[in-house]
Amino acid sequence: MLASILYKEWLKIRPYLAIVFLFNAAVLVYLFIDLRHLFAIEHAEMIWYWAFQIGTLHYAHIKYLLPITGVIIGAAQFVPEMIGHRFRLSLHLPVRSDALVLWSGLIGLLAVGIIGVLDALSLYAIIGIFFPSEAAESALLTALPWLFAGPVTYLGTALVTMEPRLVRKLVYIAVSGGFLWLFYQSNDYESYNRVLWKLALLALLSVPSLILPAYRYRNASS
Amino acid sequence: MLPKLSRYTLILLAIVIMSVYLPRLYHKVFDEKTGKTQLFFSPVIKKFVFREMVGEGHQFITRDETGKDYDRQTFETLMPFIYYKNMDLWGKLPLHIDGHVFDKETMKKNRQVFELKPHMIADRSPRIQVFPLLESQPGRTGLRFPEDAFRMTDRMEFINVDTNTVDKRLTEQFTGALREAGFVFPARLVAGRVSILKPFDEGFFVVDANGGVYHVKRAKGQPVVIKTPIPSDLTVRNIKVTENKKREIYGTLLTKDGELYLISYDNYHLIKLPLENYDPDTMDFKLLVNPLYRTAVYSDDHTIYAVAMDTRYRPIARYRHVMFSGRRIPAGTVYKALFPFYIKTTDKTSGYLRFDVIRNGPSALIGIAFSLVFAIVVMNARKLGLRKHWADLAIIMFTGLYGLIAVTIIEPEP
User: Fold this and answer.
1) What ipTM score was computed for the predicted complex, to two decimals?
2) Best interface-test mutation with A: which of B1, B2, B144 has the largest number of A CBs within 10 A?
C-alpha cells in the first residue's frame, strides 16, 4: 500500500518537478552568464575584492530559489487533495492517516532535497570557475540557510494547505513565515556557520507537525 | 497519541519563533534613542570629560569627572586636538599648553586614532582567507590591486585573478623567502589592511605554526620577509594593521589573554597598553593619540573606561563611568517580566549569527504567574480539564507568555 501511495504522490508531483527543475536550472545558468558578464566588463581583482573584502554576494540570485520550489512542490501535492475533498478518500485507504501523511511528506521533501543538492553542487561548480576554492566553499556555506529554507517552506505549504479551518491556517502561515524568515537574517557571507545546525534541528522537529492538520481534516470532514 | 505529539511539536516551534520576534517587536515599539557616551582626557584641565545623551531628542550633558557641566563650545575647547578645526575658526590657535605651542598643521599631523571593535577580531567574523598583496613600492602615486591574490596553505600560494590558476613562479618565490626566514607552515593568522585607499602599504603580518610573527611585503615585485622579534609564546589572537603617515605604530596586537599591544616601527617593539577590565569580546576600544597624551577609551553597553597615558604610554589617570544607556529603564523591567527568555540571533560584536536562549532573570516569574492564572481561567471557561491538560500548564510554567499564546492558538483536539 505504501508503494502505491508513493507512486500516487510521484504521479502528482512529476510534471511540477520537471517545471521546478527547469526553473532552478535556468536561474543557475543565468548566474553563470551574469558572472561571466561581470568578469568581462570589470577587472577581476576588483570583483575578488568586492567578494572577499566588501562581502558582495554575487550569487544572491538563488536566495529564494528553493523556497519557491518548496511552495510549488507542496502545492502540487496537497492542493489537488483539497479540491473536492479528495483527501477524504485518501484517508479512507487501509493505512494509518499519520503514516499516509508522513510518507507523502517524505516524497515532497525528497524532491525538494534533490533539487537543493543539485543547486548546491551547481553553485559550487559555477563559483569555482571564477573564484578560488575558498570562495566556492564560502558560497556553499552562505547558501546553505537559503537551501534549508526550501524544505521548511514545503512543510509550511503542506501544513497550511491541509488545515481545514481558516483561523488555524493563518496561525500556520505566521509560524511557517516566521520560521522561514530565520533563514534570511543576514546579507553577509558565512554568517550562519555557527547556528545552522540548530535551525536544521528545528526544521527536523517540524516534520511530525504534518500529522495534526491531517487529523483535524479527518475529524472536520467526519 | 501521534496527533498530540504533533500538536506539541507545533507549539514548541511557535514558542521558538515567538521568542525570536516578540522581544524584537517590543524593542521596536519601546526603544529610545541612547547614544554612546563620548569620553576624553582633556590636556587643558587634565581631567576626564564626557558628552552623553540623557533623553529624548537632543538632550546632552557635557561634564567633567568632578561633575562640573560645560556648554558645548567650552567643552570642545577642552579637547583642542580633537576640535582643532573649530579652535582655528574661533581664533584660538596657536595653542599654548604646558609651555608647548601647537599650530593647526602640527595638531593635524600629530593626531591618530586606533580602533578595535569585537567584530574586527579575526575569529569573531568570517573572512575568506584569500588576500591581495599590494606592491608597497609602486613607483607611482596611489596604490592598486595586483593581478594575483595569495592564500596560506602548506605554502604561500598565489592565484592569478584572470585565470583563477596558481602562479607557480610567485608561489615558489614567496614560499622560498618565507622558509628562508624560518617560517613554519601552515599559518595561524594572516593580518593586513586590504584597501587601496590608504597612504602606503605595509603588507601583511603572518603568524606561523609555531607562533612566530612575520612581516611580509612585496617591494618592486620581490618578497620582503622579516621575522619580527615578537615573542612566539605570546599567542597572538589578532593584529590590526593601521597604515598611518606618522609611521610610528604598525597597528594593534591582541593576545588570547586579552592583552592589547601596539607594534612600533622601532624594530617591532611591543608597547603594552595598561588596560584594566578590558574585554575584547564585548568592548569597543579606541586609542586617541595627541602630541601630549594617549587616551585609551573602551566600553561595553554598560560602562565606559578610560586610561590617560603620557607619550611613553605610562598611565597617569584612570576613570570609569556607568553610561546613561547602561542604566535600567522601566521599559527594561516590564520587558523582563513579560518575556521569561528570548532567542538572540544577531550580535553586533560578531559577524556570526547566534541562536541562543537568553534568560531574563527572576522578574520573569511575574509574567509566568499571570500567564498561568490566565490559562487556568481560559481552560475553565472552555471546560477543559486541568488534569487532562497538565502538559499545557507545564509549558506555560517554563515559557510564560509564549507558551500561553501557543497553547491558546493551537488548542487541544477533542
Assistant:
1) 0.92
2) B2
